[in-house]
């Protein structure tokens, strides 16, 4: 598949869609990719995930985080054929326009494969793990197949980026309980919807989200790409996760500097 379908073609966002994202800090967009493109990347990403996760630990021997998904990072560095998806101008253009910035860099990518019988992904906010100075971050969540509710699609608490409680919690049983309790006393709408083939969601680093269990016999295959404002600067880490992310995803960058390491190219 030489041209990868829609991978670099512009996507038309409306003012209403940009305003919606600005208010709720998440949006789901239909027809970002066509079935042929997704099927192609499903094949090569699945092959790489199987190869890198050759001997998975049995589900019943894992903690809640471990049961949530098989998680593999920066597949663009592992396989040249996956790189066009991660470097997609179409995705990066959407990320840039939703955040209303001049351009975006890659923070990192990750495959999130929820196995048949895999558990919930607890409530959390991604930016807990990121040593980044501003909230100009967005994650594209790209299901590689149609994702019904029974497979555990991503769920959002619309507008919950305004809540400060729970931002200091890593993904865990504790974060699931504490954030769920906090969200219960707010008016933020809980969005639980299936994903069509080609539908992609975008959510900001501080919006709270979770996913249900995968009660089907099929693997729920998802690729994610995390974008940041191209002018994003590194902040001093405030937890071990942020220190680890600095060392891993922003190698050689100093605190207060623009994050322009070889792992963080400008994508749009």
From TrEMBL:
Cofactor: Fe(2+)
Pfam family, one: PhyH
An example molecular function term from Gene Ontology annotations: iron ion binding
Entry keyword annotation includes Zinc-finger: no
This protein's record includes keyword Oxidoreductase: yes
InterPro entries: Phytyl_CoA_dOase-like
UniProt KW keywords: Dioxygenase, Oxidoreductase
Superkingdom in the source lineage: Bacteria
Protein name according to UniProt: Ectoine hydroxylase-related dioxygenase, phytanoyl-CoA dioxygenase (PhyH) family
Biological source species: Maribacter arcticus
Native organism taxonomy: Bacteria, Pseudomonadati, Bacteroidota, Flavobacteriia, Flavobacteriales
